[in-house]
């Protein structure tokens, strides 16, 4: 288009736009924090703000979409034969490092039943892989590691997560 705007691709682009917005949210919030302008997310996704708000009327809706995608990946991994708790924790760690800004959602947002539903899905998949009663302990450990990782510079996040898990594993395993 001569004025630099992209052509409207219509309703058929909705799925692709939604996926682009979720991916952009992970990047933008990872770089600038959860309070980053939503206009930056829309720009990174290559869509207009109207598209962003049609898919995600509130900031928390966007965060929940990221969580839902992360949980779907965890569920897919858990469904594979031979998957261990360590495999699941490795993926959770990768996700929380990539989506560190979303730790704010869990720790500071008012209770949201949709967030509770996502947490319930994680608890269920951990319960299927962990020793009896271990799912709640693992959720607590994940929260502790996430809180640590959220407070260090990006370059230190992997080392911090690995050190925290090493310390926690000493207490989690008999």
Oligomer: single chain
Which outline best applies? globular
Structural class: mainly alpha
Low-confidence runs: 1-5
Largest β sheet strand count, sense and barrel closure: none
- Mean of pLDDT: 85
Written description of the protein model:
This protein has 174 residues and is mainly alpha-helical. It has two domains: 10-57, Orthogonal Bundle (Arc Repressor Mutant, subunit A), CATH 1.10.10; 58-172. Helices cover 71% and strands 0% of the residues. The chain has nine helices and no strands. It has helices at residues 14-32, 38-45, 49-55, 59-79, 85-98, 103-108, 113-129, 134-149, 157-172. It is globular and about 50 Å long. It starts with 13 loop residues before the first helix and ends with a helix. 28% of the residues are buried. Mean pLDDT is 85; it is low at 1-5.
Summarize the structure.
This protein has 174 residues and is mostly helical. Helices cover 71% and strands 0% of the residues. Helix 4 packs antiparallel against helix 5 (85-98).
Write the layout of secondary structure elements.
Blueprint lengths: L13 H19 L5 H8 L3 H7 L3 H21 L5 H14 L4 H6 L4 H17 L4 H16 L7 H16 L2
Helix pairs in contact: 1-2, 1-4, 4-5, 4-7, 5-8, 7-8, 8-9
């Amino acid at each position: 288009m001569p004025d630099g705007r992209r052509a409207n691709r219509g309703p058929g682009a909705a799925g692709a736009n939604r996926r682009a917005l979720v991916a952009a949210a992970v990047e933008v919030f990872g770089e600038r924090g959860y309070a980053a302008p939503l206009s930056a997310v829309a720009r990174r996704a290559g869509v207009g703000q109207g598209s962003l708000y049609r898919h995600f009327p509130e900031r928390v809706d966007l965060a929940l979409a990221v969580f839902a995608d992360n949980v779907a990946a965890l569920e897919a991994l858990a469904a594979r034969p031979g998957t261990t708790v360590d495999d699941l924790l490795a993926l959770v760690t990768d996700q929380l490092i990539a989506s560190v800004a979303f730790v704010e959602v869990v720790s500071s947002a008012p209770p949201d039943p949709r967030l509770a539903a996502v947490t319930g899905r994680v608890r269920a998949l951990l319960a299927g892989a962990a020793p009896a009663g271990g799912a709640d302990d693992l959720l607590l450990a994940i929260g502790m590691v996430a809180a640590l990782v959220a407070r260090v510079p990006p370059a230190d996040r992997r080392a911090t997560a690995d050190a925290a898990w090493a310390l926690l594993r000493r207490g989690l395993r008999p």
